[in-house]
Amino acid sequence: MAISEKGFLLVRGALLADPARRRGAPADVLIEDGVIRAVGIGLAAPEGTPVFDAAGLLMHPGLVNAHTHGHSGLSKGMGDRWTLELLLAASPWIGGGRSVEDKKLTTLICAAEMVAKGCTAAYDLYYEFPLPSRDGLDAAAAAYAEAGMRAVIAPMVADRTLYEAIPGLMDALPDALQGQAARLRAMPAEQTLGAIGEVLKHWRWSGQDIRPAVAPTIPLHCADEFLCGCARLAREHGVGLHSHVGESKVQAVVGRQRYGKTLVAHLDALGLLGPDFTAAHAVWMDDDDLRRMADHGASIAHNPGSNMRLGNGMFPLRRALDAGCNVGIGTDGASSADNQNMYEAMRYASMLSKVQTPDPRHWATSDEVYRAATVGSARALGFTDIGLIAPGYKADIVFLDLGSINWVPHHWSTNQIVHSEDGGGVRHVMTGGRLIFRDGRHAGIDMARLAREAEAARARLEALNAEWHELYLKLEPVVASFCPAIAAQPYHARRYLCDAPG
Fold first, then answer.
1. Could you say which of 4, 140, 336, 433 is the most buried, measured as most Cβ atoms within 10 Å of its Cβ?
2. Are 326 and 380 in contact (CB under 8 A)?
3. Environment class of residue 80 by beta-carbon count within 10 Å: exposed (0-12), middle (13-18) or buried (19+)?
4. Is 26 exposed, middle or buried (0-12, 13-18, 19+ CB in 10 A)?
């Protein structure tokens, strides 16, 4: 199927998932130059317009991943009983020694899975040690371009290590381990900010809707001056700002001890909150924090799979929506949530809202979850023209096979997208009217080659990072005992959020 010389394409015969209807209704979609011009029945199109036959398929807008880590693709499956702090301690082992080619490969692994599972855009917090680099982030952008996705790529940065961010952790290490942990010290703040500035200044992918942003990784891992420097760079260049806020109870407890207030209140006092700001996880926000986020027009990236996988807790989705927060949904990285399946993330988001209270009146609805994974996530990325199948929006469309067992029988379209679909029903995916996944196969990715390259990289990096693995094995028992002791301390805001509504 080729788009006409005038840039038109007509999608005909599919059902359109719509929260306003229980079952998707038949609809044609007229696309011009990658943008939806009309949606309706029996649409006319200019002479010579190719027709894409979508009979037997259900259309929904491409899902938008509000929070992931492209650098994690090569780290899939490397850990089991990891808390967030153990995962951070393992970072040199699971992510070290990457070449520029590895940086593209690891991102392409994530992108390939996202596309195959109905996701067409992602907010990627990408980590490089010791500094973000133009070459590395360019390689990540090239991977998204190859997969056909839109993306926001934010260098993930800090000027403190885990051992400096958590009071007493470095002192708890034996002397020999303290010296080895000190080798992981971050580069000076000025050097890191300068490297980010170079990336932003020379970014060349925005024309393909692959945009940059800035990600001071965790407030506790950043001095206030560094956080403000990141915000200044983001606003000077007109890009987004994204941070992990209140992900673990350790962060919440230490944050209140350090700042005398919640993490969100501290970020607010520094002037970081605004429509360009996204807080990932937000498990340990209280109701005042949620109101602050809403008042500033900031977004929250809800990552239910990762929150469970790392034992961090349950984000109060219902309360966030009721407070007026914009909420998107993310998968998080492949090392903290194992896969990049946005259908799974939606299902988890729905179920986690249900186990927090026995009163179904206070659960999120499937339509609210569906909106969060589309227009909510799109807003978090800073896109105003994706997340809907409607005139003026880009033609990022997923086609699900209604013959798939996930859809037998088909009762309620958006509800089954959230609760029944698992990616197995994805037949085609298009971005900008261009098929990037057709009949269950990638158009731009050689999966056999990707698998070979990933296995070769795995073996090489395993050998290269053996020293860091040995260090992690020595650090693990200390981190695994010290940090849970902090988390065992009372934190009244969390109890407040756990109270049954009403």
1. 140
2. yes
3. exposed
4. middle
Angle ∠(38,42,44) on CA atoms, nearest 5: 60
CA–CA dist 379, 391 (Å, integer): 18
pLDDT tens readout for residues 462-489: 999 999 999 999 999 999 999 999 999 9
Residue 490 has a pLDDT of 85
H/E segment holding residue 12:
strand 8-16
Residues 75-88 have a mean pLDDT of 96
pLDDT for position 491: 82
Reading the block at residue 71, the tokens are 């650098």
Helix (H, G, I), strand (E, B) or coil at 107: helix
The mean pLDDT of the chain is 95
Q: What percent of the chain has pLDDT over 70?
A: 97
> How would residue 1 be classed by pLDDT, with cut points 50, 70 and 90?
low
Give Cα 372 distance to the centre of its chain.
12
Q: Return the HEC string of 306-368.
A: HHHHCCCCCCCHHHHHHCCCEEEECCCCCCCCCCCCHHHHHHHHHHHHHCCCCCHHHCCCHHH
Amino acid 361 reads R
CB 62 within 8 Å of CB 119:
yes
Listing DSSP states for 239-274 in one string gives -EEEEEES-SHHHHHHHHHHHSS-HHHHHHHHT--S
| DSSP H or E segment with residue 281 | strand 277-281
Rounded CA separation 7/2 (Å)? 9
State the angle between helix axes of 466-487 and 84-95 in degrees (0 to 180), rounded to the nearest 10.
Answer: 170
The answer to whether the beta carbons of residues 147 and 115 sit under 8 Å apart is yes
* Rounded mean pLDDT, 93-109: 97
pTM of the model: 0.96
**DSSP secondary structure letters along 445-494:** --HHHHHHHHHHHHHHHHHHTHHHHHHHHHHHHHHHHHHHHHHTS--HHH
Q: Specify the residue for token string 């490297």.
A: 195
Q: What pLDDT was estimated at residue 6?
A: 62
Structure-token match 């085609």, residue found: 428
Give pLDDT tens digits for 362-397. Answer: 999 999 999 999 999 999 999 999 999 999 999 999
d(CA 473, CA 267): 34
Closest by CA to 19, choosing from 417, 464, 445, is 417
Q: Count CB-CB contacts under 10 A for residue 134.
A: 15
Report which residue type is found at 113.
E
418, two tokens: 């959230």
